[in-house]
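Sequence design from tokenized structure. All designs in this work follow the same two-part layout: the structure record, then the generated sequence. An example of the structure record is given first.
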């Protein structure tokens, strides 16, 4: 019928593919804008963008030159000036004594330049002035570069955000996730667990201060850029901030934070795990395979420089490692500090996921960055956390609460304490058992994080922005959302009744008092 079994055998898979994967035939133009100047965030978004292309969509990506890898099939617009910002970060001397307001000044200027360099780039300007350019969706980092939200309004396209560092109150605000139970600070240093009344008041003040920082330090510069580069758009930046169709957050409830999320917040922790791992070379494999007492792996992340660490910390850690039986594999920028003799081996870059996946790896010493925490959970490795800033403190606290980690104060660390904590984590079997249980929960999901991210992204495309997913608060006034009208009527009636009762009671007391005075002719003391 089909001209022979060979043709029939070829047509059958094609027909099945067309039936089972109809979306492959419905391609959309998508614009992705990422002004990151550090590589860890690109570890998360690169696999996501690759999967979008593999689904058949046309993708234009605006990014830095050095950090964002080339993706086959993507139209890349490289912003050269963004790489200048990376050097500014590398030259920055981190000060642990900085106040929140002083730190915010530096960070706000950094993100202002991120938005500015993107918007002023000649290739980007050409795209903005191209009357034939059309996009069905704009994808970008969800926070701090608010001026870039103008691309969504300019191209009349739904806005999708990626929260690479998980969620905090500012992300919740963007989608109307207004329940106080989900609030977390952007910078957790000094934030308490909020169990007592005083702690709750402290946390309220803490987040209120962060709101003021955002309103008076972060936003003004972004508003100026938005007005300058999108002069013809009718919506204000405040309106655009509440129009996110979807935000993909890099966290999952199984890792210790249950959230009352609105529908357009979707948890996709581990999305970067879809990317193939870098294999171990022969030297590393030999070290791991032959480690009689196991391996302790130490990395403070891709971007943390040795000079940002407190004075003397590296020497303290090196002395502590010399007392261990375990082989130590250390990601260290300045490897000359370690002579790769004894039980300590150092490199400036290491294939982290393959090391964590090795059965001889007993412990991961980490700064508590979100990607590192997720990888430790994925591979069921106990952690010793040395948090430095921002989300790392909250990540560390959750890992401790679940019994898979311990932490040390990086500004007050001693050799004996390091040895004692490492030995507890390695020899106390409860940490490994808890890590295995946590890993099983994390893996027990109906779809992988990448499949979830792609499905919801295409859901927004299929439903033209999916306005029905956004909470009604975004379309209401403050009075309506908090039911002030209903509350006013309710308490107005109750209050009026109480006032009437009090007034009548007071009149009765006065009348009784006068009667007593009249009867006994004695003035009553009032």
């Amino acid at each position: 019928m089909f001209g022979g079994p060979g043709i029939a055998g070829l047509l059958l898979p094609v027909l099945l593919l067309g039936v089972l994967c109809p979306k492959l035939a419905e391609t959309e133009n998508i614009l992705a804008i990422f002004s990151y100047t550090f590589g860890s965030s690109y570890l998360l978004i690169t696999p996501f963008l690759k999967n979008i292309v593999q689904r058949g969509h046309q993708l234009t990506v605006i990014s830095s030159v050095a950090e964002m890898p080339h993706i086959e099939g993507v139209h890349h617009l490289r912003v050269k000036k963004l790489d200048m910002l990376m050097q500014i970060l590398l030259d920055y001397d981190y000060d642990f004594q900085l106040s929140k307001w002083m730190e915010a000044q530096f960070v706000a200027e950094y993100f202002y330049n991120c938005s500015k360099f993107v918007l002023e780039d000649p290739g980007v300007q050409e795209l903005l002035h191209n009357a034939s350019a059309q996009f069905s969706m704009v994808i970008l980092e969800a926070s701090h570069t608010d001026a870039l939200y103008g691309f969504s309004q300019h191209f009349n396209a739904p806005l999708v955000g990626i929260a690479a560092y998980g969620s905090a109150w500012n992300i919740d605000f963007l989608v109307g996730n207004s329940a106080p139970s989900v609030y977390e600070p952007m910078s957790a240093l000094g934030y308490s667990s909020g169990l007592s009344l005083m702690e709750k008041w402290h946390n309220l003040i803490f987040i209120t201060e962060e709101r003021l920082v955002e309103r008076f330090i972060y936003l003004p510069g972004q508003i100026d850029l938005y007005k300058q580069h999108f002069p013809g758009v009718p919506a204000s930046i405040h309106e655009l901030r509440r129009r996110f169709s979807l935000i993909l957050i890099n966290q999952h409830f199984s890792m210790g934070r249950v959230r009352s999320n609105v529908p357009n917040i979707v948890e996709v922790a581990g999305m970067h795990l879809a990317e193939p791992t870098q294999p171990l070379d022969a030297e590393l494999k030999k070290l791991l395979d032959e480690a009689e007492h196991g391996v302790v792996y130490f990395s403070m992340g891709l971007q943390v420089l040795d000079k940002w660490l407190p004075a003397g910390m590296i020497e303290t850690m090196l002395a502590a490692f010399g007392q261990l039986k375990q082989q130590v594999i250390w990601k260290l920028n300045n490897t000359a500090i370690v002579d790769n003799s004894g039980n300590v081996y150092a490199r400036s870059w290491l294939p982290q996921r393959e090391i964590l996946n090795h059965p001889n790896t007993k412990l991961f010493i980490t700064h508590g960055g979100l990607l590192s925490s997720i990888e430790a959970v994925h591979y069921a490795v106990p952690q010793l956390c040395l948090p430095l800033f921002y989300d790392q403190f909250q990540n560390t606290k959750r890992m401790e609460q679940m019994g898979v980690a311990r932490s040390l104060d990086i500004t007050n660390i001693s050799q004996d304490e390091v040895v004692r904590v490492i030995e507890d984590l390695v020899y106390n079997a409860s940490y490994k058992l808890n890590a295995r249980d946590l890993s099983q929960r994390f893996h027990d999901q109906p779809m992988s994080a990448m499949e979830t991210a792609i499905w919801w992204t295409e859901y927004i495309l299929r439903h033209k922005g999916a306005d029905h997913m956004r909470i009604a608060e975004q379309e209401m006034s403050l009075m309506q959302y908090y039911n002030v009208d209903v509350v006013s009527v309710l308490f107005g009636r109750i209050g009026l009744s109480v006032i009437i009762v009090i007034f009548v009671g007071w009149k009765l007391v006065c009348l009784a008092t006068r009667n007593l005075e009249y009867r006994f002719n004695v003035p009553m003391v009032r």
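Residues 1-25, 476-482, 522-526 have pLDDT under 50 and may be disordered. We note this feature because it recurs in several other targets discussed in the main text.
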